[in-house]
Amino acid sequence: MFTYQGPQDYVTPKELDRDGTAQRIADYANAARNAIAAGFDGVEIHGANGYLIHQFLAPNTNLRTDRWGGGAADRVRFGIEVATAVAEAIGGRRTGFRISPGNPYNDIAETNPANVLETYTTLITGLARLDLAYLHLLESPDRDLTARLRKDWPTAFILNPFTHPETTGPGALALIEDGTADIIAFGALFLANPDLPARLAAGGPYNTPDAATFYGGDHRGYTDYPALHADNA
Q1: Of 139, 62, 47, nearest to 98 (Cα)?
Q2: Cα dihedral angle (77, 155, 104, 2), rounded to 10 degrees?
């Protein structure tokens, strides 16, 4: 993993016991309080990309036999309880939740479409009761799943559309026009174009993201992309 001292080996993980699971939930809530105290408008709970919440959701990483594992209703419990604790700490309207159904990052295997559908519809049914600010979906190739989750979600729906092997570009804004999403999330394009809203309004041009500078290093790729206008620099 990347650290201030450079890449380091991961620690050996261990299964959380009951007290450890409760502590992790409390940690999320405390982190959210700290973020608001530091001046942030809200937080996004990361339930995607193979991180802890996703590890509870996915059947190949969640091998538990207690109330936190097994069927979909139990595998989603941790994510819902995290979101509940965060919403109680800072308010649901300051809280978003990110998911990535079928995303194989960090050795996640969600390959059964029926299982994926059951898991994530069960998850968002529980999350919907919390009146969160938004759901943020990192899309798989399954646009039908996107449409189902969009239909079931009651508040703002943010979509990072599946565009592999390309990065999400300006053409994705059409997904707002056709009702697929309320908001489009840009990743690499925003990193390379800190003034992206102005560039989208102007129809470009766009800086090309430099993948060699992603995920750590020095200022290159973070503060040296040229602005569209000198007064935006």
Answers
A1: 47
A2: -90
b/e map of 161-197 (b: 16 or more CB within 10 Å)? bbeeeebbeeebeebeeeebbbebbbebbbbbbbbbe
**Which among 51, 105, 134, 225 is annotated as catalytic?**
51
CATH class as words, domain 18-185: alpha beta
> Rounded to whole angstroms, how far apart are CA atoms 86 and 31?
9
What pLDDT, on the 0 to 100 scale, is given for residue 222? 85
User: Is position 51 annotated as part of the catalytic site?
Assistant: yes
Reduced to 3 states (helix: H, G, I; strand: E, B; else coil), residue 233 is coil
Between CA 187 and CA 18 the distance in angstroms is: 36
Q: Exposed (0-12), middle (13-18) or buried (19+): which is 70, by Cβ within 10 Å? A: middle
CB atoms within 10 A of CB 217: 11
Lowest mean pLDDT among 9-18, 85-94, 138-147, 216-225: 216-225
At 26, which helix (H) or strand (E)? helix 18-37
pLDDT digits (tens, 9 = 90+) for 35-50: 999 999 999 999 999 9
For residue 230, what pLDDT band results from cuts at 50, 70 and 90? Answer: low
What is the bridge-based pairing of β-strands 183-184 and 43-47? unpaired
Q: What's the confidence (pLDDT) of residue 233?
A: 46
Query: Which part of the chain has CATH 3.20.20.70?
Result: 18-185
User: What is the rounded distance in angstroms from the CA atom of residue 77 to the CA atom of residue 97?
Assistant: 14
**If you search the block for the tokens 């009702």, which residue do you land on?**
179
